[in-house]
Each structure stands twice: as structure tokens, then as C-alpha cells.
Write a structure and sequence with these properties.
The protein is of the alpha/beta class and 363 residues long. It contains 12 helices and 12 strands. An 8-stranded parallel barrel has the order 1-2-3-4-7-8-9-12, surrounded by 6 helices. A two-stranded antiparallel ribbon has the order 5-6. Strands 10-11 form a two-stranded parallel ribbon. The structure holds flavin mononucleotide.
Length: 363
């Protein structure tokens, strides 16, 4: 029997919401708004919240709270929710990150996880005086970062000789609670997939169709199996669930109609350093249209836009294509996370139960 699909939401710890549009967004980046949102989300049945790391942003996200400290605050205000904090190798080194996250693991009863991101925004690195590495070098560094994190968390007298990081006989105490914080990773290029197939617990990818997702999952699972590694997959989606399909589509049209063209173009200009810059020219944003980029992780492409029934069926379609987790963004987070928990999630569970019964009957 397959596991129930898991749900995560994007923490709006960055201003401007999840779409680059002048449409009204009843979403706020403040701590107060986010604490309440996290409580609504855990009540609604969400498993994870994913916070973002940005040092600067040129696409309407003028204010950005730091990810690890913000995640810790959300953990302090919730009971069940797991919170994924983003770590960017470069600004973070693995010694500090391992220690920070180990302490938060103890503070939160083991509910902290990490998302090791690899950097796509050259201007941000320039602004904070960090060296900018070529695309695949960034992933080589991220892989060492993950190997170091895991080594520090699991071994005493940890010794590591990498090109980017070095450890000598290091014993972190205390180690994080068991089970270890899960290690997520974002990105879709070949380097991102290969890294996931070697070291990550979870691979996050931008919004996509079930067919687009299947191609990535097949590649990643085959490579992971060859490495004796197991990796789970999360896909991004921007959900617009309304009582009728016409209402949901009208909201999408309004988001795109009121998109801020300069900010979207600016973002398009920046992301050319990501997947498209990888040697094979694949990866995040390599094929994104203007409309796709209005949701800055291609979330419309996953097409979770319609009635609760349509969305639930499409979630099952993504699950069939290999998704273990659906990462969701919303226009009006608090209201829509609640609506999603009430109207969509039960339908997903119902469809999963029907599937399980059919599978038993077929045996
Ligand atoms: C779900 C998800 C979350 C991400 N979160 C962040 C983030 O908080 N900060 C950041 O700088 N990059 C973030 N990234 C960007 C990735 O780390 C990576 O740089 C980008 O997806 C380009 O990857 P690619 O070139 O392998 O396609 C995220 C990516 C995904 C898919």
C-alpha cells in the first residue's frame, strides 16, 4: 500500500506573497500572521511548512525574514507541524548549520528539517560579498555541505576532507534527536537530480505536469537505486480551490492580468543563472513562460486550479507520477489553507482509500 501523500505550504516569511502580481493578497509576511497560519495549517492536516531564505530580492519581495530563526519561532507556536528551514551554502557553513539545527531539534521535539538550496540569484551573492560559483560547482558544494551535516549529526570524531569544507576529529554534542532532521533539497537540473540521488532525503522540484514530473522521477529513482540510496519527491503547486472551476480560473486570470511585468522580467533575468545555466540547459525555469514566472516556482504548471474534486483528482495524478509530497502556495494563505484542509484534503484521503481498496480487490 502506498503512503498517504504529504502536504507542505510555503511560509510567507518574504513580503509580496507567492505571486508577482498587484492582485489583492490577504497574506502577510509578519511573525503574527505566520504564527496563526502555522496553527491553522497543522489543524488543517498539513505535515510541513517550508520557509524561504533570501538576503535580497528584486521581484516585489522587499522584506525577507531569515529562515532558521523564523522556523524556530513557528515551531515554538505549534505542536505537530514540521518546519523546514532553508540553508544556503556560502553564507552558512555546515559547522554552524549542524549546531543550530541540532539545538532546534531539541527545542522542538525533533520537528525541524532543512532545505539545502544552492543559489540562483547572482545579484544577491554580490550584495553580500559571497563568491559566485558556476552552476555545477554550486551543487558540488551543496553535496559536500549535506555530507558534512549528516556526518556531524551521526558520527563522533568526524573527519572530512572536501574541496569546500574540512573537519578534523569533530564531535558535536548534543546530536539532534532521533530520527535525524530530514534533508530536503531544491532544484531540477541534472546536477540537482544527481545530488539528490546520492545524498538528499527529499528532492523538491518546481511546478510541472504529471508527465514532466514522471521524467524527473524516473531519472532520479534509477540513479538513486544504483547508488543504494532512497529519495522522496516533493512538487510545487499554486493552489486555487474555489466552489466552481469558473471562479478558480477567474482568479488565475486576474493574477496574471495584474502581474507586474517589470518585476516578472527582472526575475526572469535573474533565473537565467539557474537551471538554464547548467551544462545540459535543463532545470528550474529553463522552459518557463511569462505566465509561469508570475508564480516564481512555476506553481501554475501543476494545475491545482479548480474545484476541490478536480484538485484532489489532480493531486492523485501527481502522486501517480511519483510525488510523495505536494508543496502549496496560496493567494490568501490563512483563509485558503483552512479551506484546503476542509474541502480538498478529505477528498484526497478518500481517493487514496478507494485506490487502496481497488488494489486489494485486484490481488
Ligand atoms: C521548493 C524549492 C524551494 C526553494 N527555496 C529556495 C530558497 O528559499 N532560497 C533560495 O535561494 N533558493 C531556493 N530554491 C532554489 C534552488 O535551491 C535552486 O537554486 C534552483 O531551484 C535552481 O536549481 P537548478 O538550477 O538545479 O534547476 C528553491 C527551489 C525549490 C524547488
Amino acid at each position: 500500500m502506498t503512503e498517504p501523500v504529504k502536504f507542505a505550504y510555503w511560509v510567507p516569511n518574504v513580503s509580496g506573497g507567492l505571486v508577482i502580481s498587484n492582485i489583492e493578497q490577504r497574506t502577510s509576511w509578519t511573525p503574527e500572521y505566520n504564527r496563526k497560519l502555522a496553527q491553522i495549517a497543522e489543524q488543517a492536516g498539513f505535515d510541513y511548512a517550508l520557509s524561504q531564505i533570501r538576503f535580497t530580492a528584486g521581484y516585489g519581495a522587499d522584506n525577507q525574514h531569515e529562515s532558521v530563526s523564523f522556523s524556530q519561532d513557528l515551531l515554538a507556536h505549534t505542536e505537530k507541524l514540521n518546519v523546514i528551514a532553508a540553508l544556503l551554502p556560502g553564507p552558512w557553513n555546515p559547522a554552524l548549520a549542524a549546531k543550530q539545527i541540532a539545538t532546534i531539534s531539541h527545542l522542538s521535539g525533533g520537528r525541524i528539517a532543512v532545505n539545502v538550496v544552492s543559489g540562483w540569484f547572482r545579484g544577491e551573492f554580490a550584495a553580500i560579498g559571497e563568491h559566485w560559483l558556476d552552476h555545477d560547482e554550486r551543487y558540488r558544494r551543496s553535496e559536500e555541505f549535506i555530507r558534512a551535516l549528516r556526518g556531524i549529526w551521526t558520527e563522533d570524531s568526524f573527519t572530512f576532507r572536501g574541496d569546500f569544507y574540512r573537519f578534523s576529529d569533530y564531535s558535536l554534542k548534543p546530536k539532534p534527536l532521533d530520527p535525524l532532521p530530514e534533508i530536503f533539497q531544491g532544484g531540477s537540473s541534472r546536477a540537482a537530480r544527481d545530488m539528490a540521488a546520492r545524498v538528499s532525503d527529499w528532492y523538491f522540484t518546481n511546478g510541472n505536469t504529471p508527465e514532466g514530473l514522471t521524467a524527473q522521477v524516473e531519472d532520479i529513482r534509477a540513479k538513486a537505486a544504483a547508488n543504494g540510496h532512497k529519495v522522496k519527491v516533493g512538487i510545487n503547486a499554486f493552489a486555487i480551490a474555489r466552489d466552481t472551476e469558473a471562479e478558480a480560473k477567474a482568479v488565475l486570470d486576474e493574477i496574471i492580468g495584474k502581474a507586474n511585468p517589470d518585476a516578472v522580467q527582472g526575475f526572469a533575468h535573474e533565473v537565467k543563472n539557474a537551471g538554464k545555466a547548467s551544462p545540459e540547459g535543463e532545470g528550474n525555469w529553463a522552459k518557463s513562460s511569462f505566465e509561469d514566472l508570475v508564480q516564481y516556482n512555476d506553481g501554475f504548471r501543476s494545475n491545482l486550479i479548480g474545484t476541490p474534486q478536480q484538485i484532489a483528482e489532480r493531486i492523485i495524478g501527481l502522486k501517480d507520477a511519483g510525488a510523495d509530497l505536494i508543496l502549496l502556495g496560496f493567494l490568501h494563505f490563512q483563509e485558503e489553507v483552512e479551506y484546503f484542509g476542509k474541502h480538498v484534503l478529505p477528498l484526497v484521503r478518500q481517493l487514496e482509500a478507494e485506490r487502496a481498496r481497488e488494489a486489494v480487490a485486484a490481488e
